[in-house]
Amino acid sequence: MKNEFSLSVVLNVKLDVLFKAWLDSKEHSKFTGSPAKINPKVGGKFTAWEGYISGTTLEIEPGKRILQSWRTTEFPEESPDSKIEIFFEKASAGTKLTLRHFEIPQDQVAEYKKGWKDFYFEPMKRYYSK
């Protein structure tokens, strides 16, 4: 198994709204249902899920793409941060979000793939269907 995966979801929300929400502490907290603290600039640090997730925003292409370093409290101490790359595309029903997660500790790939679905995509679908 590779130490990466990609997942996509179409959400009933305008692209610019979703893009800004990903980098906004208050909105990110609302769509996941758990506190997030985000400094929304390149080099800015973030935490989500009560500090379980932490990282740094590495690149921002406004309205198109965000690249972040990403790790959880379950990463082995010697493991480098993984990376997430989030792509935003207009879709007929709103916005297609594609998340590529890579450089993950090998034995944690399946856990994080399920986690993105359960703790991000499903809550986001519910939040943006209101």
Compute the number of helices.
3
Give the N-to-C terminal Cα separation. 37 Å
Radius of gyration in whole Å, from Cα? 14 Å
Average pLDDT level = 96
Share in helix = 25-40%
Strand arrangement across the biggest beta sheet: 1-7-6-5-4-3-2
Number of strands: 7
Q: What portion of the residues fall into strands of 2 or more residues?
A: 35-45%
Residue windows where pLDDT falls under 50 for at least 5 positions: none
- Oligomeric state as shown: single chain
Provide the descriptors you would attach to this structure in a database record.
28% helix; 130 residues; alpha+beta; seven-stranded antiparallel β-sheet
Write a brief structural summary.
This protein has 3 helices and 7 strands.
Describe this entry's structure for a reader.
Helices cover 28% and strands 39% of the residues. It is an alpha+beta fold. Strands 1-7-6-5-4-3-2 form a 7-stranded antiparallel β-sheet. Strand 4 and strand 5 form a beta hairpin. The longest helix has 20 residues, at 109-128. The chain is globular and about 40 Å long. The chain starts with a strand and ends with a helix. The mean pLDDT is 96.
